[in-house]
Amino acid sequence: MPQHTTYELVELLKKELSEEQVTVNKTVRELHSKDESYHSPRLPDIVVFPKNTQDVSRILKISSQLRVPVVPFGLGSSLEGHVIPVEGGITIDFSLMNKVLEVLENDFLVKVQPGVTRSQLNKELKKYGLFFSVDPGADATLGGMVATNASGTTSVKYGVMRDQVRDLEVVLSDGMVIHTGNLAAKSSSGFHLNGLFTGSEGTLGCFTELTLRVYGIPEHVAAGRASFPTVQHAVEAVVSILQAGIPIARVELVDEPSIRQVNRFSDTHYLEKPTLFLEFHGNEAGLKQDVEFTQELVNGHDCEAIQFETDTASRNALWEARHNLAYAYIHGNPGRKMMVTDVCLPISELAGAVAHARKNVEDLGLTGGIVGHVGDGNFHVLLMLDMDNAEELDKANKLNEQIVLYALERGGTCTGEHGVGFGKQKYQQQEHGDALLVMEKIKRALDPNNLLNPGKIVRTDKKGAII
Amino acid sequence: MPQHTTYELVELLKKELSEEQVTVNKTVRELHSKDESYHSPRLPDIVVFPKNTQDVSRILKISSQLRVPVVPFGLGSSLEGHVIPVEGGITIDFSLMNKVLEVLENDFLVKVQPGVTRSQLNKELKKYGLFFSVDPGADATLGGMVATNASGTTSVKYGVMRDQVRDLEVVLSDGMVIHTGNLAAKSSSGFHLNGLFTGSEGTLGCFTELTLRVYGIPEHVAAGRASFPTVQHAVEAVVSILQAGIPIARVELVDEPSIRQVNRFSDTHYLEKPTLFLEFHGNEAGLKQDVEFTQELVNGHDCEAIQFETDTASRNALWEARHNLAYAYIHGNPGRKMMVTDVCLPISELAGAVAHARKNVEDLGLTGGIVGHVGDGNFHVLLMLDMDNAEELDKANKLNEQIVLYALERGGTCTGEHGVGFGKQKYQQQEHGDALLVMEKIKRALDPNNLLNPGKIVRTDKKGAII
């Protein structure tokens, strides 16, 4: 039972921070009550805007002393309810901590505050001939991307968010500040805290500074589109490309309904067939050989048309269209909410999983597009839901479950890149078995009162304690 | 205080396993009392040889019930005392669990038992046109390599051991069996237990099955040697190669004294100058361009001679010579013990660190070679010590400390790939600060009685409890 009123808590926070950094304004709280998903909103009691690490430490000390839940918030682009404060309390909005602190160009590293967005970072890095590789659909904050271990179209070559993290400054549940890593390219010193905190979704601590790996902008880039008679043909072509050892930088599946959305939203005229968007990075001679070999391989899978973009503008247009796909669906379905499935499977199981998903979408009478980072074995079914139609919502939940169970039975995971939040919490026991108990022991050791983003990832009993 | 005699413990273990799997034979215990380092040996009380996961679970249940320390043991090739049972107890030797269980060639995965060595695995993988990338100097077991997060010459391209781990079957301190991952190429589901258990050096659990990533043998490979007037020139050339974005697969520094050892031990006739051993993987055209560009770059750093090996035999001889370097030193210094420093720094600090190390070796009047995985910023000083010469041992310890402190002050780590064991435990507080408290909380949560390889990584108080 809390020992304080919200009024007292606000006064305390204002004293420790400043007047204008603490608000109970309803509009602001509403903005922090939801993410981009179909999950039901819940208002936080208070929203605070820290300016530095010390502010965050002060907030967590108060939260810990008064037993108030805290939820870190980037831009609210999560897809499984991660930032929804299901037990109320304080939401920490990191939008004032949005500086690129240092570009260590010779070490291919960058230090940023958690509120920096990926496009903001890339704009800064471009001056140095560098880029940050991870590119989820949303222009998310980097803090949020670390929190969910986000990925995107380039992870098949450059890895996921966790692979980019060299060091995190983290404020723990009691306000203590630690660093989880260092600046060296590798280390065998102590437990891998970088890896543990990446993907912890605010349940183990709040990030206040991130040191991330960056890459030189590739000397040469080739991008193209390959169209196939069916999604199966496209997926099987990807398997061939990977097995041939071609170091592809991006390989994205966009199915027929999704290509139609792209064309409508982005004013493109791409062939409305199941399509692979492809990209290669490297030196000129190597690239040419990779592209030729890929053409041979896709032709062996009945590729109907393959088109390489020759100029930078067309290439950018292609990836912009791909990135805007979720927004194309939202734009094309006003008043509806998005549900996106997110399983990832071993590549040998991908074709079967996509066929299973497509059949189930049709059997349930739903309409949804299939897209995916197929080089990683990760695909999404995008559904636009009428939240007032209980039957439709029920069918969508059933589909999501069918897709998850299919993946789990075949060595896959319920979430390749969106994270658990509370939407995927119900599958944690089935996916991890007794390993979930280990996660819960770690959570209990680091957040004994379950105040850091409670209700996410690990299970909680009716009294709010970690199981 | 233990509630049992060793005799009783042996009887219990023999009952749970079988007569021939449990021994107190002194010769066997002596073989399990040490690793390849200068650290002082200590005999285990008992050595057991499990045949399967259930055996390991039974051993850990007994260890936990009777409060007996347990130390997992692969081949004893660790370099910081990892497998030395500093508190006695049971050593678990995994040599009977040495099967390659399954090659999932279409998924680029392999399932192995922990006692499989890297050369044994590569021999099996070759049949499928695949290889396992991580190659420490020793032909270590894969279980040991996961335990220390080992790496080697190829991590600049393929990553370290942790990057290869998809799933571990782990027996926890109470005998419970968990899986830390799955078969998918990426996942955002739950805390990153793969990463946490990799590099945990037997302090959090014992591995009984490993699912690891493997790679297609590259279509084309080019390898060569480039000699420079000084180590500084060589290191600066590496920085240029990395900054040019050339996707080099291996880049190893071998200094002048070390090249002499190589020539003597491996019967080669390499120019006795600071040398980079280089390797490139890729398609034919791309490789040619990479090699030409590299030649241009090294020439800009006063490269005195560059020689590419044209046939597979010479290429293999080159890497065999590099891998045998530590043994060349041991062979050339009979009766002496090896101390190897192992810092890793941001690449921009590498040239300074190597110069600092070389100067300190000379100032202290020691003789030692410098080698390194310089593409990662990781280098070693190899010292051959007369263990009866207290002054020499003292100087070597002083050098090791100077090198570690230099690295820590510049954002580096005290160990790039050898791990902590007890040799680097004294630097954990300085390197990790309060993050060490987090590691200790995790250790306490998973091994409350501190029975799993006690005395390694985390601090222990005088009563044997974790601090």
UniProtKB/TrEMBL annotation, chains A, B:
Q: Transmembrane residues, as ranges?
A: none
Required cofactor names = FAD
Under the heading Gene3D superfamilies, the entry gives: 3.30.465.10, 3.30.70.2740, Vanillyl-alcohol Oxidase, Chain A, domain 4
The enzyme's E.C. designation: 1.1.2.4
Source domain of life: Bacteria
Query: Which InterPro entries did the record assign?
Result: FAD-bd_oxidored_4_C, FAD-bd_PCMH, FAD-bd_PCMH-like_sf, FAD-bd_PCMH_sub2, FAD-linked_Oxase-like_C, Oxid_FAD_bind_N, Vanillyl_alc_oxidase_C-sub2
From the Swiss-Prot or TrEMBL record, give the protein name. D-lactate dehydrogenase (cytochrome)
